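User: I'm preparing a small set of examples for a lab meeting where we compare how different chains pack in three dimensions. I only have the primary sequence for this one, and I'd like the structure in token form so I can line it up with the others. Please keep the answer compact; I'll paste it straight into my notes.
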Amino acid sequence: MKNPTPTLRLRLSPSAEMKIRRGHPWVFDGSIRKQNRPGADGELAVIFDRQNQFLAAGLYDANSPIRLRVLHHGQPAKINTDWFAQNLARSLAARDGIADRDTNGWRLINGENDNWPGLVLDRYADVLVLKIYTAAWFPRLPLIVSLLNAQLPSRAIVLRHSRNIRHPAYHDGMTISGAPVTQRVIFSESGLNFHADVTRGQKTGFFLDQRDNRRRVEHLAADRDVLNLFSFTGGFSLYAARGGAKSILSVDLSRHALAELRDNWQLNPALGTRPHEELQADAFAWIEQSTRRHSLIIIDPPALAKRAADRPAAIRAYQRLARAGLRRLADNGILVCASCSAHVSAEDFVNAIRVTVSGKKMRELAITSHAPDHRVTVSELRYLKAVFLQKIR
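Assistant: Understood. Below is the structure token output for the 393-residue chain.
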């Protein structure tokens, strides 16, 4: 009889061990000082400390710089089907009260923050979109699908995965449960209808994390001339229209994104003939050359810092956009500056905007973060931040 394969055991450097003890969710390859054998993608590995005591357990990724994604800290636990089922139930319970009759699109699992490292789950109406960022989850997809079907019945489950991972049986955008999804999914947010391109769109098909900031913009938009810079598919524009904006200009470089914005507008006939103009242009160049005035300006660019090394340039770019926005802001106007760059902290971003408006007659209305379904329990993973400012006459 063949002997069973021994549990994959890891020993870490003292500094890495300390981070894991404090709840950090990742072990990098350079932090592993010893392991008893080679590991395979998705294998469960256990970390022991220098006294040979259990420290944590997680999923091994043989080809990633993040070699282990931690599932569990503290006392030993059996990481089995029951554990994953209970973990899913906890994640869903944490979203109690977020959905309402006017909203059927929200996040159900937010990766490391819900003890599902490298995995997010979003719901768009009756379709679930599961996105994974590590090959360690591929072997467990059948288990996850069975748990989702048991606890969260849906019409279909669509798989999305990051570009740097591959598997012969799974491709990005495939339906892994239910009837194949071949078209965009229509869902509602705060009573507005949107398309989510769940098979090919960015992230899982829509940026659900800005929901609360969109609602805030709606409440500020009445009788204002609104500029939505980096408008993408028009979330802020539609909310501003419903909020009673006098006019709306949406600017984005992507022709495809502007076409989707028009499609989203058509899903909401109640917006009527509210004046709306679309412009395909480089937002950086356009805002610096434009002479138009606006009384509500939203500046929400894509991530400007893909790596830690990009942070100084990204901060300068955010300040450049804020300065240009200030020049185009009417008296009593409101400027909204947002960042989704994880490598620029909220503190650094807010300070950069404050320095930019220093000496100007501006009042800080609010500093905001993710919508509550994108809950954050790991501080390093707090990526979204926005500053709301008003020009004082």
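A couple of notes for your slides: The two ends are 84 Å apart (CA to CA). Residues 311-327 form the longest helix (17 residues).

User: Perfect, thanks.
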